[in-house]
Each structure stands twice: as C-alpha cells, then as structure tokens.
Amino acid sequence: MKLCWSLALVAVALLMILTTTRAEADLWEEDDKEVLVRTVRGTKERTSGSSSSCRYVKGQWSECDSNTNTRSRTLSLKKGDKSCEQTKTIQKKCKKACRYEKGTWSGCVNQIMTRIDNLKANSDTSCEKTRRLTKRCKPETNTKKSAKGERSNKKSGKQ
C-alpha cells in the first residue's frame, strides 16, 4: 500500500514538472534598484537558449488603497528588445497595522489552551476587535514536571 502511494506521489510530481516546463514562464530576478524579467516560451525555445530579457527600474510603492487593501509600483523599462513592455505595474496586499494586547492563556481543557487578545487603541480600524488563539497543551509525564510544563506553555504564546 505504501509503495502504491509513493508511486502516485512521484507520478504527480513528474506531471507537475512537465506541465510547468511546457508553459510560458516569466523568470524574475530582483535587487534593490532593478527587476530583470526573462520570458521563456515553450520547450523548443528553452533548449535552444532563446529567451527575451527585459530589465526594469523600480518605482516607489504607492500609499495603501484602503478600498482594495493593495499598493502598487510601476516598473519602467531600462533595457530590452521590442517584445518588452514599456511599463509594468505590480501590486501587493498592504500589511495592516493590527496591534493587540495579549491576554492570558486559559487552563488546559481537552489538551487545548485558549487566549483572547484585544485590539490596541492606535491600531487600524479595519482590524478585528479581538483575536482568539488556541494551542495544544504539553502532555504531563509526572507531578514534578507538571508545574514546569504549565509555565513553559504560558511563556510560548506565539502561533
């Protein structure tokens, strides 16, 4: 049975590799000032080494748009052939400024402990007012270690 699952996993991996090598791909390389975009099309061109390279200069990130929760940046062509776009715009999600006051961890119930954190006053208004965190309790092996185990569970409050 394990052999069957292993063979199925290998087959899926090979299928994914073959699919991605045939599809059109953009390879991005980025440093502090520039973005290099290489477009490779099909397996025939890839084996012959034919690909177009477009080098772009990065613009500044825009302010966060509160409606879409995204910000954008324009890339301007610095060097490339006719197939390169003159400008490209990339977008990414804004990072919300959600800051929480950590609550205290509850006792272990069914090997789970819970903590409820409350939103701090100076946080983004679009953040959830509270967040609930849960984690598994460490198993207790004997009475001497149980008190120590409780402390270590309370200290490691991050998930």
Explain what you see.
Among the domains are: 55-93, no CATH class; 100-136, no CATH class. Helix content is 26%, strand content 35%. The protein has three helices and eight strands. The protein has helices at residues 2-22, 42-48, 143-155; strands spanning 25-30, 34-40, 52-58, 70-80, 87-93, 100-101, 112-119, 130-136. It has a five-stranded antiparallel β-sheet with strand order 1-2-3-4-5. A three-stranded antiparallel β-sheet has the order 6-7-8, with no helix packed on it. It starts with a helix and ends with a helix.
SS strand fraction: 25-35%
Q: Which strand order does the major sheet show?
A: 1-2-3-4-5
Q: Count of DSSP helices?
A: 3
Order of helices and strands: HEEHEEEEEEH
Give me the count of strands: 8
Low-confidence stretches: 18-25, 43-50, 143-150, 152-159
How far apart lie the N and C ends?
35 Å
Can you tag this structure with a few keywords?
159 residues; 26% helix; 5-stranded antiparallel beta sheet; heparin binding; flat
In short, what is this structure?
This protein is α+β, with helices and mostly antiparallel strands. The protein is 26% helix and 35% strand.
Topology:
Layout: H1 2-22, E1 25-30, E2 34-40, H2 42-48, E3 52-58, E4 70-80, E5 87-93, E6 100-101, E7 112-119, E8 130-136, H3 143-155
